[in-house]
Amino acid sequence: MALETGLQYILLNIALNFGIYLILTLSLNIEVGFTGIPEFGRLTAALVGSIAVGAIIGRVAAALAGLPTGNEFISYNAPITTQINAYLSSHAIISIALLILSILTAALLGALIGLLTALPAIRLRESYLGITLLSFGEILRTIMYNYPDVIGGTLGIAAPSFFGFAGSYENIISLSFIFLMALFCYFIAERISRSPLGRVMKAVRDSELASQVYGRDIMIVRVYAIMIGSAMAALAGALYSIYTKSVRADVFTRYSWTFLPWAYMMLGGVGNNLGVALGVLILSSARSIISVYKYEISQVIPVDPVWLEYILIGMVIILLTLFRPQGLLPEKPVATISKKELEKIRKEVLQPAKQ
Length: 355
Prior knowledge:
The protein is an all-alpha fold. The protein has helices at residues 2-34, 42-64, 71-75, 77-89, 92-118, 126-146, 148-151, 170-194, 196-206, 208-213, 218-244, 254-268, 273-292, 294-298, 305-323, 339-354, and strands spanning 157-158, 246-247.
């Protein structure tokens, strides 16, 4: 029975981490893998997405339920959220509408924060741009952690339960929704990769000078990449808060929301969306197994299992850098036309030549 319970927990943990981190790592891949932007401030947009759910949509839900939305919303957040959840449980249509509004608000604010962080820093190169984007994330997290009027400061606030009307199936439906959004983001990332915009992004990544020669504004392309990636990352932050029903700034650490996506992307293959999915699946599974079987692992190895995850991720990065920097699934060239159309062109060209 204990084994079954542990296995179920592992599967649920893997599913949650895979859904959230697939979206987050795909967003990073659009900026780093497609465009070559050193994005080290991934937590900035993710935190904004979480704020959108708790601070904005939470207050909208409170207003619809006839509850306070001012300072009382923060001071008495627990009882107010309980009443909000009771209201949403009895009004399924309103709950779904607020869920959709949460997703749209998070994505829009994510794109906006991406634009605001990109404009003053986009002309910087390599490490300068990376450290600037990292600084924006730390500034925002520090403000949200110490300024209580937005998301409760150090205590945080609760997020509305949008799937409360489902009763005992709430977590399963919430997890299924995360998976649906992850598939949607994968579809978007693949479409971008095969689109003219995606080809321009990769051209900028490979040679800025050549892109400029062909009349491309590399700064505009970079801004587009950061806005799209930030919108997707904000969606990941929003979905995390929706599932956990909490909004806290201290949860959005550099390790979890910047370093781990880099590790997943490097393992799977930079610039390859399928590789990103594979990297997320492998490391998410390893992290979940370590988390569940800490005691059993401690009986076998001389290392405290608390630190085993950090050692594992660090070793993966080092070994990849030394022996396989392209990742498990290297990026492949994307055909601009289908094989069917290519074969048709070949026949049209070769037929007159034979005659």
